[in-house]
């Protein structure tokens, strides 16, 4: 059983991004880039399924610039067997990524695709759902537990009121939530081993996909600066201020 794991190269979660002065986007020049944290969880889950003997091959896929190779090498250091880079300098929006992934699903015929629930740069939370729609596969989103058995995958989902478990017939699309697992640290020997694993590069045109953006960003702005707080001497003053100044009670 093959598992396809799409991994996105994003600005590292520790970096405080700065909005460009012309408001056209955020400045990512000379900024540390890493694998999207939810995708690390997806790779970890796929590798654990392989270690349990449920899965035979884990294929990592990244769509984007040449440097996404580094992200794919990290995925292979965690334990993915091989990688595919869909190389393009074009801006990729979720629909374009979903179409590229659909082309790879058609080619590779995986039984399971495990994506992150969202990319921390665009916060779209769309690609997995769009991929499920384009491929006609069942989807289990925001997974906090994944169990594969008898041609089905049981996905426990974090929903508002608690947990919901859905049973999907394979092949299926799953997206990961934060509590699914804690990804392992990549060790130096595994980083070295990952350098020798196969990494294939294709272009969107090879997959017959038009990645032209459908959505135009009009402007990007910093959130409003928060004013400084004040110290109050006692609870009575606090309550008065909440009533008369903040008018929240
Ligand atoms: P998004 O819909 O942009 O929030 O992304 C959700 C998930 O789709 C991510 O966690 C990745 O698993 C996958 N994904 C999005 N963009 C890419 C990309 N450029 N390359 C590979 N996977 C991607």
UniProtKB/TrEMBL annotation:
Ribosomal protein among keywords: no
CDD domains referenced in this protein's UniProt entry, alphabetically: ETF_beta (cd01714)
Name of protein: Electron transfer flavoprotein subunit beta
Classification via InterPro entries: ET-Flavoprotein_bsu_CS, ETF_a/b_N, ETF_b, ETF_beta_N, Rossmann-like_a/b/a_fold
Organism: Roseateles terrae
Residue span, Electron transfer flavoprotein alpha/beta-subunit N-terminal domain: 23-211
Keyword hit for Transport: yes
SMART domains: ETF
Keywords, sorted A to Z: Electron transport, Transport
Family membership noted in the UniProt record: Belongs to the ETF beta-subunit/FixA family.
């Amino acid at each position: 059983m093959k598992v396809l794991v799409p991994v996105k190269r994003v600005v590292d979660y520790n970096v405080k991004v700065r909005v460009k002065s012309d408001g056209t986007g955020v400045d990512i020049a000379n900024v540390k880039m890493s694998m999207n944290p939810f995708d690390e969880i997806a790779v970890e889950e796929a590798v654990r399924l392989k270690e349990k003997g449920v899965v035979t091959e884990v294929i990592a896929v990244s769509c984007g610039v040449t440097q996404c190779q580094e992200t794919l090498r990290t995925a292979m250091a965690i334990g993915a067997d091989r990688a595919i880079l869909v190389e393009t300098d074009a801006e990729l929006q979720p629909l374009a990524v979903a179409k590229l992934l659909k082309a790879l699903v058609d080619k590779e015929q995986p039984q399971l695709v495990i994506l992150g629930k969202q990319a921390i740069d665009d916060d779209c939370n769309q690609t997995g759902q769009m991929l499920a729609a384009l491929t006609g596969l069942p989807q289990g989103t925001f997974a906090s537990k994944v169990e594969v058995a008898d041609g089905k995958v049981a996905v426990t989902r974090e929903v508002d009121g608690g947990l919901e478990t859905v049973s999907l017939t394979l092949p299926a699309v799953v997206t990961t939530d934060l509590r699914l697992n804690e990804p392992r640290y990549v060790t130096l020997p595994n980083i070295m081993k990952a350098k020798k694993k196969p990494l294939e590069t294709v272009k969107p045109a090879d997959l017959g996909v038009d990645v032209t953006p459908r959505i135009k960003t009009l402007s990007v702005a910093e959130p409003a600066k928060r004013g400084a707080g004040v110290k109050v001497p006692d609870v009575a003053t606090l309550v008065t201020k909440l009533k008369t100044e903040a008018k929240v009670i």
